[in-house]
Amino acid sequence: MAEARPGPTVGQIVLGLRLRDLREGAGCSFADAAAALSVNSTTVRRMEKAEVGLKPLYVKALLERYAVPPDEAAAFLRLVEESHRPGWWHRFRDVLPDWFSLYVSLEGEAALIRAYEPHCVPGLLQTPDYARVLFRTGFPGAPREEIERRVALRMERQGLLTRPRAPLLWAVVEEHVLRRHVGPPSVMRAQIDRLIEATAMPNVTLQIMPFSAGPHPGMFGPFQLFRFEIPELPDIIYTESLTGAVYLDERPDTVAYLEVLDRMGTQAAPVQDTGVILGEIRKEL
Asked: Which residue blocks in the chain are alpha helix, DSSP H?
């Protein structure tokens, strides 16, 4: 059987989807494909969903079964080999849960990231000191070295906002997030300053949900929506719990979350007011 491994990369997800399309284009059932590999249908399903790694020998046999031309098959196999190369975040695998490695991969490939954050400043906009306080709270028994590794990972993720072809980040943040003191006042002052700077970035949109907005449709917890320029990839929703995460890509789910984000956007303070609100909060610190 194909080997299970930690969270897949976006490249592996795309290859799985392409295998599915090739199988369906060849008129093959899961059983037909499985017979070509002498495995059960579940293995083929898991390969197409990127739940297991793609073994080149298995992929080669499938491409032959699907009658893929030799030059196209060779190109596909090269992509399979490349997909096994670890992403930059694998350097942090000691502090990166398997269920979050997929998040980092999705984040790095997204063209648009929309987020709702009711608890803390979005990770891509946090200062090191703010993130450090959060990690010390979340991992009270962790040694200093581990905390610093987690901070370093978060800071390295932020590089995607200033790279060429950076994604668009559109976040709705609750007002109480900005008024909750995370660490001493100096930490919050620096964090608010960082948000003020971020609002000047052309690819960052920050809206604040004021206390006066009352109840709104997103009051179930934080979540993110990823949208990609890769044709094979649908929108993907990420929601997190204390011990794991859920990734949703079925259209009814993603449409529901997108509608909530749009409705929240109309209830939150207008984008042009974000700087004013942040300035007022900064003066209070």
From this structure: 10-25, 30-37, 41-48, 56-65, 70-83, 98-109, 128-138, 144-157, 175-179, 185-198, 251-267, 271-284
Contact 63, 18 (CB under 8 A): no
Radius of gyration in angstroms for the set of CA atoms belonging to the chain, rounded to a whole number: 22
Domain locations in the chain as residue ranges? 10-83, 88-284
- Residue among 177, 165, 244 at smallest CA distance from 209: 177
| pLDDT in single tens digits along all 285 residues of the chain | 334 455 788 999 999 999 999 999 999 999 999 999 999 999 999 999 999 989 999 999 999 999 999 999 999 999 999 988 888 998 999 999 888 999 999 999 999 999 999 999 999 999 999 999 999 999 999 999 999 999 999 999 999 999 999 999 999 999 999 999 999 999 999 999 999 999 999 999 999 999 999 999 988 899 999 999 998 899 999 998 888 889 999 999 999 999 999 999 999 999 999 999 999 999 998
User: What are the structure tokens assigned to 45, written together?
Assistant: 């399903």
Q: And the tokens for 5?
A: 């491994």
CATH of domain 10-83: 1.10.260.40
Q: What angle do CA 241, 242, 246 make, to 5 degrees?
A: 30
The two tokens of residue 38 are: 């002498």
**How far apart are alpha carbons 141 and 206 in whole angstroms?**
34
Half-sphere exposure of 166 (CA within 13 A, CB side): 15
Tell me if the domain spanning 88-284 has CATH number 3.30.870: yes
